[in-house]
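Q:
Just now I want nothing more than another pair of eyes on a protein record. Here is the record:
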Amino acid sequence: MIETLKHAVNWLSEPSRFFTLTVVAFFALLFPGEMGPAWLRRMTRPLGAIYRPKTGGIAFAVLGVFFLLACFDANFAAIVLKPDNVPIAAMIFLVAFFVWFALKEGRRNDALAGAGQPIVEKQEAGDGKVLVWPDLVHTEFICLILWTVFLILWSIVLKAPIEEPANPAKTPNPSKAPWYFLGLQEMLVYYDPWIAGVLLPGLIIVGLCAIPYMDKNPKGNGYYTWKDRKPEITIFLFGFVVLWVWLIIIGTFLRGPNQNFFGPFEYWDSHKLVPLINIDLSQIIWVKTLGTALPKNPLIRESFGLILVAAFFLGLPPLLAKTWLKTHYEKLGPARFHIMVFLGLTMLSLPIKMMLRWTLNMHYIVTIPEIFFNI
């Protein structure tokens, strides 16, 4: 029974299945009983109970018990309890808890406001004043003492992850970046270095800087709310949790020797061979579908990929402005709307590229090696 459960978890951890489950769980937990047809809304409505304190506490307790029981497995413990990886395992629980807490408080305030009562922050503030001294300083001092004790105990219990001196003749397998760069390292699997290492990180920084200029919704400043900021919170959490924290989890716990994927209960066998033949979109179209050789002219050869990329980045924004996002277009104006949609489509291109790689072994949608241009 236990072995069957472990095999099931390993099977579900295959990247395309794991990512699909993550996206489904993300939207089901964020919008319980609110999305899709009537049968889907009925099916997901009970998930709304997760935002009750008692139910949420039980859910976290169950997850914690499962995690502790899983540590009895030698393969799982060897990965999760490695000193390098312990903070990342803790990060998963902390991210999950604080996201849950923020959404719970937002829904609580929405319910209070709907009933005509003052929200939680208003009730706690009383006369509207919170004193820095002694209230804030006292709290910060207690936190400082507790975290100092915690870090001292941590340094005693866990050995520092210091390895032997670097040797170019004996490189680590797998060779991984620090945890905070694992998302970037994972993106290098799916994109050319100029996109994964320069363009996408640059757009992330530009996008974060542009948020105050694009998001003019004043609601939610200084207090929790979900109802008044659903699109903003959803976009942020999708980028942070699904496209960043998830990539760190994949890179830390599922990427093993030779960059192969392993399940959490699977032994990291350095001799594991996974034959992969990468293929480009042009090869799928011209060779596999049309049964002809690749054209020598790169523009003709990559015409299908170029049309797809142009339709994605240039055709979708005006279409969305006239259909599903019409209200946002009218509210934001043309300039801010198109910048927001461009950044959103760039963000969506990552999961699309990942799924194409995992399911079709597709390497590039457009590849013009003559000018080092690959997408």
